Structures are given as structure tokens and as C-alpha cells.
Amino acid sequence: MGEFVVIDGRFRLVLTGGAGAAVLAVGGVTGCAIGGEGKLASGDAADAVTITPANGTAQVRPDGTIEVKLSDGKLQNVTVQGQGATITGKFDGGRRTWRSTRTLTPGTSYTVTAQARDDGKTRTVTSSFTTLKADKTLSIVDVTPNVKGEKVGIGMPIIVRFDRPVANKAAVERTLRVTPDKPVEGSWRWISADQVVYRTKTYWQPHQTVRFHASLAGVNAGGGVYGAEDEQATLTIGAAQVTTGDIDGHHMTVTRDGKKLRTVPFSAGNGQTREYTTTSGVHLLMEKGNPVTMTSPGRKPGDAGYYKQVVNYAVRFSNSGQYVHSAPWSVGSQGSVNVSHGCLNVSPANAKWFYDVMQRGDVLKLTGTNREFEPDNGWGFWQLSYDEWRQGSALR
């Protein structure tokens, strides 16, 4: 063990151990880091900078903290360099202490560089260490929406899916940050052990950019699992497109940014069974397909009620197979009678128009039936009040 001290006006390295000590003269030394405790010489005093983890330390826990302390003077700057996540930190009020404010990437080498100033002199101390290479890691495998250049509707959720179940949901949720250009309150809700969804209290303001960032690297996700790396995504919110329809009235009206675009006649579910009853509530448009092959759920050829139909210009609004789609065979019923298996049948011309103008995340509000849209039937998230929604957060 050893440290630099000033003896007779010269820097000397004092090695201690056993029963005695050795003193080595060193010329031209302006600073060093030994075991994470660099010594800054200023005049006849030794201003100690202590960096934790110590220089040369291995197997540092990714969820640990980097700390730099100065006994006298002020810390001017502290930087942390490594191939993993960008490490941020904060000084205390007197700039005598700096601590990192986020976790570290597993299996990564970092170098901490601290600059301190005292009596008009600035000196530099460094410390290098490596973090533990985790046996099990947690990664984000999908963020929806994720189509480059896509504009989405004002009801669009942010759906994050992980590559394994999350044990410590609170720790992981704390790393998730959503920053819209036009602020609005929102909350995360865990809908499964490996999936969490962000929904706003009110709809997004249209025509803006929303950024998602997960400072996941190094987070202790529970059960010996650490976050592998950070993740980010950008959403573009398009026009405020809202469709409202009365199933008993057989018409729906489409608006964009508050202005009416078109009223479309439709034929909804015939209501003979629950399965054939179109759901009432706040739906979100989920995806488009042209063409889409529709088959009767739970039935095979030869069963009563079996059908297989190819349709064009189909826009999905539930997981139970409800679409707005072209139905040339029922044009005579559209606007007057409900004859479908639960979809909204519209004319080929109206179907193409709706298909072309709609965005994922656009709002579709339907009323008039006794089958309430289920919150877990696709993107039925707006069926819950905001207070109900927030109960699914691990940070409630």
C-alpha cells in the first residue's frame, strides 16, 4: 500500500506494510490515482480526492453508486467514460462530493475522471473499474408504436414488452420516462409480468413528438436479473381523428382536428348472440389489412355458423375480430339494418376512404348495445377511468 506525500518540498511515494515503511522519491509527478484514492498536491498540503469504486476494482454491482469526494477545495468536473449507458451525476451544494444518479451497464469498463481546484490550481485524478457481468439480463424486445415515419392517433398507448417476466416491477418502472412536446399527465400499468403500457389521463395533443426513454441498463430487476441496456423510441402524434357512431342509428361520423370529414352508413353486428354483438365503448384503431381473411372463432368447416370470408380495406378495433371493412354484399342494409357478425360493414368506397385516412391509435366511440367493450379486448385501455388505470402501476 502507499500514497504520495510532500516531504522536503518533493513528491515521495510512501509504501507501507509489515513493520516498516519505504520512501521513494518521485520527480515530475503532478497527480495519480492509487486504489481509487488520488492525491492532489497543492503547496504544503495534500488535498485528497477519493473515488469509489477504487481503481482496479472488478465485479462492481451495476446498481451501485459512483462517488467522488474532496477533502478541501472544490470539484470542478467529473466525467465517467465507458461503452455502456451514459452515466450522469450531481454535485452537493459545496461541490465537495459528486454521486452518480443512475445505474451502470453490466460487464463494462468505466473510467472516472475528477478535476478539482484549490488555491488557483486544477488537478486531475482518475479511477478505472469494471462492472459485474450478469448471468441473467432484462431487455426490451418491442416498443409499440414502432414503425418508422408513422403518425399515430391521440389515443395511442405506449406498449413496452420485455424478454422475460419482471420480478421487481417498481425498480424497472422507475427507469421509464415519457416526454411529450406538449405535456400531459400519464401513468404506466402492468398488464402482464413482461408487458407494461403507458396511457395518458386525457388524449395526447395532436401534431407533436413524444419521446420514450428507458434507463434500463444495470437496474436490479429482481431474482439476480439486471437490465442489459437502455432503450428509446420516438412517437409522432398526428391529427386528432375521432369517429363516433350509434349502432342503433347505423351511422358514424369522422372528424379531424374538430372538423367533420364524413358521415358513413354502416351495418353492425346482428346481436343474435353476444359474439355477434358489436361492442359499445371507447375503442382504438389497432391495425390495417388489405385483404384480411375472416373466419368464425371456435368453429371449423361443417360446424353450424362457420364462415370464411376475405374482405378488403379492413381496420381492426378489437382483439375479438371486430373491423371496419368493405362489405359489398350488405350495401343495401348499411345505414338501416344491423346484419353483420360484429364488424362494421361499409361500402367499398367508404371502406377505402376510411382505410386511407385512419391512423393507429385513432379513437372510435360506439354506443347503442348492451355489450360493453372489455378493457383487455385489444387496446380497450380507455374503458378504465384514469384512477382505475393508475392502480396497475407498481409505483402507485
From TrEMBL:
Pathway: Cell wall biogenesis; peptidoglycan biosynthesis. Keywords: Acyltransferase, Cell shape, Cell wall biogenesis/degradation, Peptidoglycan synthesis, Transferase. It comes from Actinomadura spongiicola. The active site is at H325 (proton donor/acceptor), C343 (nucleophile). InterPro entries: Big_10, LD-transpeptidase, LD_TPept_cat_dom, Transpep_catalytic_dom. This is L,D-TPase catalytic domain-containing protein. Transmembrane segments: none annotated. It holds the Pfam family Big_10. Residues 241-367 form the L,D-TPase catalytic domain. The keyword Cell cycle does not apply. GO terms for biological process: cell wall organization; peptidoglycan-protein cross-linking; regulation of cell shape.
